[in-house]
Design a protein that fits this description.
Elements (H helix, E strand, L loop, with lengths): L16 E9 L4 H4 L1 H4 L4 E9 L2 E5 L7 H11 L2 E5 L7 E4 L2 H12 L6 E4 H7 L6 H9 L5 H13 L1 H36 L2 H16 L1 E2 L2 H22 L3 H4 L2 H10 L9 H8 L6 H12 L3 H12 L4 E2 L3 E2 L9 E2 L16 H9 L6 H6 L1 H4 L15 H10 L2 H8 L4 H10 L8 H15 L4 H10 L11
Parallel strand pairs: 1-5, 3-4, 5-6
Antiparallel strand pairs: 1-2, 2-3, 7-8, 9-10
Helix pairs in contact: 3-8, 6-8, 7-8, 10-14, 10-15, 12-14, 13-14, 21-22
């Protein structure tokens, strides 16, 4: 037994701790579809559970060789045991356990622990890298087993005989991961005991529950949005007189523009949109630039990701704990945070009817329908939000009393920021200019550079040039 008392936990007695890791192979791309879809039918190569000096190898896909068991004894000082089911323990510890190993553990129906501990979550909370390999190199000058890491990547595509040949190599890799997780957990405990509040542990569970519940997707609407966007790209390419394949090549687009006497330095969105404002530009060049920009359609991309990751009519695992620098969750798979804004007076019902009838919508209308895609007719969505929570908290942490005074007086910080930038009275700042002020406040809080700032402006539908900025 390892004596350990969880910070702020009601569990006060010494707890039995077990460190766990899985290695799997599946038919889906984990990064594309997420853990929940990938793990529904993924095969378990290995489950390794270490408790004290005992190393449990649970239901390996192939028999484990004796020399591999001896290598584990010699390298790690553990006693390996091949078993049909892992032992029941009070606490199970793993790296990224909430969004991978726990899902598999529950899929297999094995005994649930009294508590789950995720060393990745602990590391992220304290400003450390999330990668186990990066943490090992940073803290212990020792990362993952390189040979095993390469083998598990190849196993995802080769399968069959390769799995059998690499089986023991991957097992050793898995054991080393668990040993590294154990070391990391022990290293983190002084920080955890002193600084990790119980409220943060509750946040782990909330994040897991939200990911497990998922969101419902209107698949019919998603497919209609994709069809509309693809037809729009086709028509745009035909007007420009180039194939879609050619338009996706920046070299071919630049060459075609050169032939029209237009010498753009690159084909980035900001560059092309700037050049398109030139009244002397030939119509053929404008059509070509528009077609190039149309090859990347936000609505199509997000709708495709939603369908790709969907299990039935739900998408799971959309939140990544501590994904933002400030500590809030980030979106993954489908970017559900900061979906494109709808144009003023946008009629969702009318736009939905039109796209379902096969009409091609303007890009901003199709993008606006993404909000309707995750709100099917039979569901209700309850909306709630903290008012400027990040801007308020960052100002408080940085001791920015002038910003805090703005909030105390219930004034609009975004309008005041925009007014300072544009040299006008806050009362004269319109909604469009206020959006720029909001982005600047967020950019300062998130330590954005110029390129990222430009990308965020684009995502929010704000063009700084329209308010006289470059």
């Amino acid at each position: 037994k390892l004596p350990f008392q969880t910070t702020g936990s009601k569990i006060k007695e010494a707890l039995i701790m077990m460190y766990v890791d899985f290695e799997t192979v599946g038919r889906h791309d984990l990064k594309r579809v997420g853990a929940y879809k990938y793990l529904r039918d993924a095969d378990i190569l290995h489950c390794v559970a270490i408790r004290g000096n005992d190393c449990y190898i649970v239901q390996p896909m192939f028999p484990v060789k004796d020399d591999t068991l001896q290598r584990i004894r010699d390298t790690f000082g553990l006693e390996p045991k091949v078993v049909d089911e892992p032992p029941a323990d009070d606490v199970i510890v793993g790296h990224n356990i909430f969004e991978f190993d726990r899902i598999l553990w529950e899929r297999e129906g094995w005994p649930a622990p009294r508590e789950w501990i995720d060393t990745m979550y602990e590391a992220l909370y304290f400003g450390l890298p999330g990668s186990l390999d990066a943490l090992g190199m940073l803290l212990f000058d020792e990362g993952k087993d390189l040979a095993g890491s390469a083998a598990i990547k190849r196993a995802q595509t080769k399968g069959g005989n390769y799995l059998k040949l690499a089986h023991d190599l991957i097992l050793f890799y898995c054991v080393k991961d668990v040993v590294l997780t154990n070391r990391l957990h022990e290293w983190l405990q002084p920080l955890v005991a002193k600084y990790l509040p119980e409220t943060e542990r509750r946040q782990w569970e909330i994040n897991h529950r939200l990911n497990s519940a998922g969101i419902c997707i209107d698949k019919e609407l998603a497919e209609a949005i994709i069809a509309s966007e693809q037809e729009a790209k086709k028509r745009s390419a035909e007007r420009a007189g180039m194939s879609q394949e050619a338009l996706r090549s920046w070299k071919k687009v630049i060459k075609a523009l050169h032939e029209l006497g237009v010498y753009v330095p690159d084909t980035r969105r900001y560059t092309l949109e700037t050049w398109m404002d030139d009244p002397a530009l030939p119509d053929e060049a404008i059509l070509l630039m528009q077609a190039r920009l149309n090859m990347v359609r936000i609505a199509e991309k997000k709708a495709l990701r939603a369908l790709e990751a969907a299990v039935g009519d739900h998408v799971y695992g959309l939140l990544r704990y501590y994904g933002a620098h400030t500590g809030r969750a980030a979106s993954q798979l489908v970017q559900i945070h900061n979906l494109p804004r709808a144009p003023k007076n946008f009629d969702y019902d009318e736009a939905r009817k039109r796209v379902l009838a096969g009409e091609v919508l303007p890009p901003d209308h199709a993008a606006a329908l993404l909000r309707a895609m995750i709100v099917p007719d039979h569901d209700k969505v309850v909306l709630c939000d903290f008012s400027a929570i990040e801007a308020r908290t960052l100002a408080w942490m940085a001791g920015e009393e002038d910003i805090l005074d703005v909030y105390r007086k219930k004034e609009d910080l975004y309008k005041i920021t925009a007014a300072k930038i544009l040299g006008k009275d806050p009362a004269a700042v319109n909604d469009y200019e206020r959006q720029l002020g909001k982005i600047v406040v967020l950019a300062c809080g998130y330590q954005m550079g110029p390129e990222r700032f430009g990308a965020v402006c684009q995502a929010f539908g704000v063009d700084p040039r329209k308010v006289g900025l470059t």
